[in-house]
């Protein structure tokens, strides 16, 4: 048995006063690809965000590469793809500028050297965005935004990739590219923990699926087979999202 | 250029140029974090510092720096901890700061509403030697932070959650941004006044965005616009006897409008060039995914 890269034991977390995680156990071993599945509100994203320290834990233990998370400092070993629909901020930025910030974990005092710029370029090539390196991210499609966010995580050349719904809102062409990128990473020995709404094109890559329900682990084992209509070839699983969730128009002046 | 023969105009121009550099240099990070109005809030809080300066017969500039730094740190703490009631707490901080300023300045033996006006709307021609010294020191700090830590501040302002996973000290950098913004407000206080400070932090950045595709270019263009309008406004106010603060702000807005009009054909040409360079592109996407990044953020 290889050593655990991520280990959660009895983790509880609250958002406000609402318990979202109610004692989660989760282990991801070196080289494994683990999918975290579950319905909206089951605690998938919160579980991921406790691992990176964005959501405080009220009870339980989290270890990264064998070290307690609070004392873990070796962040260059971790690549993180947050759940985003856009890589853009309030000010224009080029694809390279965004991806370069992923390299900061390896750069001393924020100074990027030649090797760092090369790593950024390689990360862009991995997701097929090298030809858009100098373009503003505002000119990209939703799928290309996601590719930029993944390149940003890959720029540090991490041993562990944590991804929160990398396929959400991504067009088919970009899904193929992402699946291909991920296959290469896994083949190179990268450990992956990813939140997915459905297995989709990544299914063949996944070693193990952990299904959450109401903040508890309901299933931990081989990925569940799709059933019924979901199993049909070419099934495109699209949920209508509530309109109030949509990105508001932001001018950057009044928000 | 006979205006350079006067010592007060030399001081005024130096102060104006430093504001033209520092205000957009900090403002760009605030705009990037979508906290464009934070400068406005700090300006309100700084009023209490000015009032206290008069009341205690200390330098209003240094007192305003101290109080606005405390205020900016308080705002950052409210943003962390007061997720749901954060906006109410911020509103109270702003109005309390303003009211405190008016109250203290009226209690002060040497204070008067005329003094208050010079801090609210700027009083460039009365900038003293010691003001210039203070402004130079504070501006040097701002330039050092905004340029020296640009990659770190860019990462944190772009995506705080991701920045945490790169191991950056996110909270320290957020506090540093707040403190730098507070310092900039007091640098700009004598030039454009506390009520108009935010305009110089935000509008040059908004104007620069009309032309630029990258963060680096936006930064450079915004600072260039800032320096141009502050010099332009100061010189205009010398010849035309108009208030320099208001002139500078109106010039900045004019620059924004002019660049917006000029940039429209440029943007169209760029879009065509992009379409030509990437003919395959992406298929038209109908699924617009929901955004969750705004969760838990309190806009300032």
TrEMBL record, chain A:
Chain ranges of the ABC transporter domain: 6-239
PROSITE patterns attached to this UniProt entry: ABC_TRANSPORTER_2
Stated family: Belongs to the ABC transporter superfamily.
Keywords: ATP-binding, Nucleotide-binding, Transport
Region (Disordered): 220-255
SMART domains linked to this entry: AAA (SM00382)
GO terms of molecular function: ATP binding; ATP hydrolysis activity
Lineage summary: Bacteria, Bacillati, Actinomycetota, Actinomycetes, Kitasatosporales
Pfam family, one: ABC_tran
InterPro entries: AAA+_ATPase, ABC_transporter-like_ATP-bd, Metal_Ion_Import_ABC, P-loop_NTPase
Gene3D superfamilies: P-loop containing nucleotide triphosphate hydrolases (3.40.50.300)
The protein's name in its UniProt record: ABC transporter
Biased composition (Basic and acidic residues): 233-248
Origin: domain of life: Bacteria
Residue ranges the record marks as coiled coil: none
PANTHER family: IRON TRANSPORT SYSTEM ATP-BINDING PROTEIN HI_0361-RELATED (PTHR42734:SF5), METAL TRANSPORT SYSTEM ATP-BINDING PROTEIN TM_0124-RELATED (PTHR42734)
TrEMBL record, chain B:
Location of this chain's protein in the cell: Cell membrane; Membrane
Record field: transmembrane: 12-30, 62-81, 88-112, 132-150, 162-181, 187-208, 215-239, 245-267
Topology relative to the membrane: Multi-pass membrane protein
UniProt GO cellular component terms: ATP-binding cassette (ABC) transporter complex
CDD domains: TM_ABC_iron-siderophores_like
Keywords for this protein: Membrane, Transmembrane, Transmembrane helix, Transport
Keyword Transcription regulation in annotation: no
One Pfam entry name: ABC-3
Main location, first listed in the record: membrane
One GO term of the biological process aspect: response to zinc ion
Top-level taxon of the source organism: Bacteria
Transmembrane recorded as keyword: yes
Family of the protein in this entry: Belongs to the ABC-3 integral membrane protein family.
The name this protein goes by in its record: ABC transporter
Natural source organism: Streptomyces resistomycificus
